[in-house]
Amino acid sequence: MQTLVTDWPEEAASCLNRGETVAFPTETVYGLGADAFDADAVAGIFKSKGRPSDNPLIVHVATPDRIGEVALEISDTARMLVERFFPGPLTLVLKKRDVVPEIVSAGLPTIGVRCPSHPVASEFLRYCEHPVAAPSANVSGRPSPTDWKTVYHDLGGRIACLLRGEPSAIGLESTIVDCSVNPPRLLRTGAVSIEALRELVPDLEIATSCKPGEAPKSPGQKYRHYSPEAEIVLVEAPPKSLPEIAPTAWIGLSASPTEAIKTLQCRDMDEYARVLFGFFRTCDAEGIRTIYCELPPEEGIGRAIRDRLLKAAGKN
Ligand code: TXA
Ligand code: MG
């Protein structure tokens, strides 16, 4: 299949409206979309990503008021979260409307809904006739793509269209809160922090999959994720020296040990989040065998970085 690469949201949307799969930028990571009401089109997403069929997709809407097109029984708490954080890097799990085919929710009675704040994503979604089901636009198991070239590398020739945009400003996938249960439960950490959520939802529960070192419970969390080819070694602080002889890289908030041949010292946690997946990918391209990753503090977006690092290291 020839992949059309375009800068025009309207052109990308008309492709999607014809039942094709379209990759598009969002502020978290790039997504691979299909019409959420078209089961055959959605099947194309699973096929091109090699995604297991029991892992549900998030549905994207152009504006917060369109959540009702895919979800029912939106609680007061859910409404509060929508008002505060939509559009933005938050996904809410709500009761699913029957119009959304089962393939989207992997047979679950609930549906994840998100309204991206990225201007290109918003424009694209406005031109789409229906809400858009979209996982991250990577081959299953690989780190999520944060720029269009990475999407092309993974999925070029396997998808109908790629809508180009700037690199994703956040760099980690959305925070997921399950509002179909009471009290609401955090299923995945992201840029909307636990601290920010607890200001509105003091009794928010934290699923074990979000607690470092504990076994995953929610769908999708059980699969190996975010993995570069290189071995990941997690450290709380830079070691005095690195034992490996093989090509070694360093990423963290601190300066690197001198032996690392490829290093990235991030100014702050936002930068760490933004560059992490891209760093994994360039390390692989450059034949790095071991990546030392410094665990950031467990606060704000630091929790999400730690979560992705633990998963990449196969520890969660
Ligand atoms: O930032 C994001 O969320 C990106 C962009 C493209 O929006 N999307 C993304 O999708 O990260 P994906 O498919 O890579 O991750 C979706 C996660 C999976 O872990 C899946 O199990 C969970 O959301 N999920 C989706 N629907 C769910 C549901 N009804 N109940 C529980 N978890 C759900
Ligand atoms: Mg993904």
Task: Give the structure's gist in a few sentences.
It is built from nine helices and 16 strands. With 316 residues, it is an alpha/beta fold.
Record the SSE blueprint.
Elements: E1 4-6, H1 9-17, E2 22-24, E3 31-35, H2 39-49, E4 58-60, E5 71-72, H3 76-85, E6 90-96, H4 102-105, E7 110-114, H5 119-127, E8 132-134, H6 148-155, E9 161-163, E10 175-178, E11 185-188, H7 194-200, E12 205-206, E13 231-235, E14 248-252, E15 262-265, H8 269-285, E16 290-294, H9 302-312
Parallel strand pairs: 1-9, 2-9, 4-7, 6-10, 11-12, 13-16, 14-15, 14-16
Antiparallel strand pairs: 2-3, 3-8, 4-8, 5-6, 6-7, 10-11
Helix pairs in contact: 1-5
Threonylcarbamoyladenylate binds next to strand 6 and strand 7.
By DSSP (H or I, 4+ residues per run), the number of helices equals 9
Q: Pairing-aware structural class of the strands and helices?
A: alpha/beta
Question: How do the helices and strands follow one another from N- to C-terminus?
Answer: EHEEHEEHEHEHEHEEEHEEEEHEH
Determine the CATH topology of the largest domain: DHBP synthase
Oligomerization category of the chains in this entry: single chain
Molecules bound to protein: threonylcarbamoyladenylate, magnesium ion
Q: What is the C-level CATH assignment of the largest domain?
A: Alpha Beta
> How much strand?
15-25%
Helix content: 25-40%
The overall pLDDT average reads 93
